[in-house]
Amino acid sequence: MFLFGVVILTGWLGYEAYLEGHRTETTKESGEAWAKWLTVAGTERFNKDYSPSACAPTDSTSNTPHVWGECLKAITTASAELSNLINPFTQEPIAIVGGCDKDEHTTTGQMILQKALPTPPGSAIPFDVTLLSDSDVIDKKIQIHITICDGGDYPIKIAEVEF
After folding, report:
1. Contacts by 86-92 with C-beta closer than 8 Å and gap 24+?
2. Is the pTM of this model over 0.70?
């Protein structure tokens, strides 16, 4: 009876580990979908009449530069390509967060977007990496780092793309 219990417990723990790994891989795939979209958009968004227009460098009528918040809203609304990506840990849409929080476990399966700005030549650190905020102007190409938070709220780097 004891051995039967051990076999059942081992099977159950293995199944839970499988589910956790599957959720993490699904979250990674979402990060890779973002990387693919940002890479393609980075090459095409400087073309005339780019859609979504909120991700173009400037407004075509007023020539004012667009900001990241407008672009993010345009690509995550109901009809956009990236709107259907779901956090497999919470079954809610993936949110952009400031970092993985191992203490609170509120960022499981969420995504971190950071911009990498070059520092002056000769600096010991080649890039200054900060969070990509809604007010960041996107009128020039920027380097974006994509990271996801796994089931234990540890960061997993997905890609660095030029947008």
Report:
1. 86/30, 87/27, 87/30, 88/22, 88/23, 88/26, 88/27, 89/23, 89/27, 89/151
2. yes
Residue corresponding to tokens 């400031």: 98
Strand segments, DSSP code E, in 14-77 are none
Residue type, 26: T
Average pLDDT, the chain: 91
- Measured between alpha carbons, how far is 50 from 36 in angstroms, rounded to an integer? 17
Alpha-carbon span 98 to 114, nearest angstrom: 9
**Using an 8 Å Cβ cutoff, are 157 and 34 in contact?**
no
Give the tens place of pLDDT for each residue, 39-84.
Answer: 999 999 998 888 888 899 888 778 889 999 999 998 888 777 788 8
Four-residue CA torsion sign, 32, 68, 76, 113 = positive
Q: What are 56's two structure tokens? A: 């173009």
